[in-house]
Amino acid sequence: MNRTSLSKTEVLELIRSTLKHDKSYKKGNVISTMCTYPDTFAQELFSEFIDRNIGDANLFPGVVELEREVISSLGDLLHNPNAFGNIVTGGTEANFLALWAYRELSGKHTIIVPETAHFSLYKSANILNLNIKTVHVNKDRQIDIAEAEKAIDDDTFCIVGIAGTTELGVIDPIAELSDLCIKFKLYLHIDAAFGGFVIPFMKDMNYDVADFDFALPGVSSITIDPHKMGMCPIPAGGILFRNKELTKKIEWSVSYLSGGHTAQTTFVSSRSGASVIAVWGMLNYLGYEGYNDIIKRCMHVREHLLFELDKIEELCPIQPPTMNIVGVTSTKYNIVEIAEAMRDKGWAISLFTEHMRIVLRPSVTKKVINSFIHDIKEVLSCIQAKI
Length: 387
Ligand code: 0PR
Known about the structure:
The protein has 387 residues and is α/β, with parallel strands linked by helices. It has helices spanning 8-18, 40-48, 61-77, 91-106, 119-128, 145-151, 174-183, 199-204, 273-285, 287-310, 335-344, 366-386; strands spanning 84-88, 110-114, 131-135, 156-162, 187-191, 221-223, 237-241, 252-254, 262-264, 315-317, 325-330, 350-351, 356-359. The strands form 3 sheets. It has a 7-stranded mixed beta sheet, with helices on both faces.
């Protein structure tokens, strides 16, 4: 803190100077992340209603009503208009809440996840004192169902399936997991933090994507994050349970808040009502058609990337992409060396063991891909020249 007060201009200059090396979604060289530049209307809504704390529900009953409508709209998208849930801080809290609810309901301590699970599940297991059994994935990088079945023991209470893995956007065979969970009376949580706002629209466009949501009877809950492909500002994650009953052991009663008794089913107590309002705004302003158009554009850009990659002998997709995430690898050179050289050229690159992850979000346009291809060709020539 400064001893004396500064002017707004001075404060802004200091902040801008410290942030000058931060990357910007707007510039287009960020092809690595799942989050995106929030829609400008969502930003307006967020700042207009910045003061709303939905943690104090009786103070802001209108926001509570909007949250109910958001959950019901998302439930509709995921084949269960009666779903119960909340807009939370992100996928991490959403995943945590599902595991917490089911640990409390079952009194057991073991969960099964594919090796592609996001690290938030490991964080949650750590906090909740759970054993986490990690199951291998098959050649398509989907959870191995036979191995998952073998991993079930008397202490198991939940399997987590992923609908849009962090590394490659792969969808686990959720229908088979659903059958398995029904057979062994286990809860099935689906982490569709990224895929939730993509897969339903791809289905509508006749892409060959598998079922993943409440249409499958074994699915107990779904993580779906508006702050990823939903165009909303951070923080906006989503957790949807098949019904309210599933949250009964994590419902926290608070008696002293404004207007009297309230009950919370989130981990966080004070919660951004502005986030809820921005999500409601986007669901209604963009609407189904708007999201459909966004996903359609992302898929066109994906096709363009695949077309351009096909012309470069040294590069290829690590496997055919399922959704708008492409893993780029090299048949000839070390991918780490390529990624580092691209980072030196100013690209924000997300690097996994064998591939670079490119997330075709709305700000990654054809132009961005062309410039990426141009730079990566230069990088490949430099590496070739050194040999
Ligand atoms: N589940 C899946 C499948 C995820 O990919 C992620 C985040 C989460 C859960 C957790 O979500 P929150 O980060 O909202 O809690 N996946 C992104 C990733 O690891 C998160 C991210 C986004 C990281 C933008 C960096 C970034 O710049 O890539």
